[in-house]
Amino acid sequence: MSNPSNEWPLWEVFIRGQHGLSHRHVGSLHAPDAEMAILNARDVYTRRNEGVSIWVVPAAEITASSPSKKGPLYEPSHSKVYRHPTFFDIPDEVGAM
Amino acid sequence: MSADAPFFEWLCRLGDNTLVLGHRVSEWCGRGPALEEDIALANISLDLIGQTQMWLTLAGEVENAGRSADDLAMLRDAWDFRNALLVEQPNGDFGRTMMRQFLFDHFHLLQLQTLADSADQRVADIAAKAVKEVTYHVERSTEVVIALGDGTEESHSRMQAALDWAWPYVGELFASDAIDVQIAERGIAPLPDTLRVAYDQRVTSALTKATLTVPEGRFAHSGGKSGFRHSEHLGHMLTQMQWLQRAYPGAQW
Which of B22, B35, B145, B138 is nearest to A44 (CA)? Predict the structure, then answer.
């Protein structure tokens, strides 16, 4: 078996599909450094014209919330429907918001 | 007889370089050292085969004998191929494949950049499309050669061995013959040897970063682009590449 310490580090890839949209997480890949991670992301994730901009982030640098804390983190907002601005009539001229 | 034999011959040199190298690179499909490299090599292979389609289609039109790009790719034998010897050499290890790619890519980019000003608009149009793909090929193969050359002791020694092995095939890319002279006089393309100074600068700069030593010898194998003497490897490659059309003539996708 290969030694995990010899593996290239993992990178998370974010692609902007069109100008004006935000970057979206599309997946991950391995690469020896940031420059190669960009090139690999170009080859793995933009073969079908998916993007106009790529971000790569070392996966180890991402701090994630813990799934075991989802009760205290998210459930309190379930009962607070007044936070959703669904009570307003939006004029058609405004378009997509 | 062909309507414009030198032009046809010259277009076959371009199309056969990309066809043969594209097929060689495709041999890595499913065997790359990492998933990411595997996909990158497949993309490069597809770029090269796409360029082949354009060059050999134009070659067929210029020849005016009713041969399509597929006919030229699949139904000619080794002695009719006009690719440089470098691109038909076997893949070897990943380092050797990337060194071959690096040495060809830098030549290829310089060639396409000058073809954008070709007196023949069809040539200029194909070059303008291909140059974007090849700009990326150069970036990728250069990064990999630098990373592996300036890497571990083992990767460094493999890359130096790859360079020593590939170097004698570089000279043929820049050798000018009677066909090149005709093509240059017609303003279709400059003589290949006029690209050598810029090539040496770019390649040497990258190889220095890669801590690799350019061999001193200027000996150059020849016989590929003239078709006079291909290496034995081309015939073996063609039996793989062409077997389906040979076994089932006229088979359609």
Answer: B35
CB pairs under 8 A between A and B: 29
Written as six digits, the tokens of A68 are: 């075991």
8 Å CB contact between B78 and B242: no
Q: End-to-end CA distance of chain B, in Å?
A: 31
Distance CA B10, CA B160 (A): 33
**DSSP per-residue string spanning A35-90:** HHHHHHHHHHH-TTS--SEEEEEEGGG-----GGGHHHHHGGGTT-GGGS-TTSPP
User: Using the beta-carbon criterion (under 8 Å), do B36 and A29 form an inter-chain contact?
Assistant: yes
B90: tokens are 């076997």
- The closest alpha carbon to B150, from B93, B91, B216, B213, belongs to B213
Please say whether the beta carbons of A43 and A25 come within 8 A.
no
Name the region of A93 (left: φ>0; alpha: ψ -120 to 50; beta: rest).
Answer: alpha
Residue A46 near residue A72 (C-beta atoms within 8 A) = no
Q: Which tokens sit at B56?
A: 């050999």
Report d(CA B253, CA B251) in Å as an integer: 7
Return the ∠ at Cα A44 (arms to A39 and A46), rounded to 5°.
85
Q: Which residues of chain B have pLDDT under 70?
A: 1-2
Distance from CA of B234 to the nearest CA of A (A): 29
Rounded CA gap, B200 and B214, in Å?
Answer: 10
Q: Answer yes or no: do A30 and B140 touch at CB < 8 A.
A: no
The per-residue pLDDT for range B96-139, each reduced to its tens digit, is 999 999 999 999 999 999 999 999 999 999 999 999 999 999 99
Question: Could you report the predicted ipTM of this complex, rounded to two decimals?
Answer: 0.76
Q: Which whole-number Å values give the CA distances from A24 to A45, A50, A55, B35, in the listed order?
A: 12, 11, 9, 22
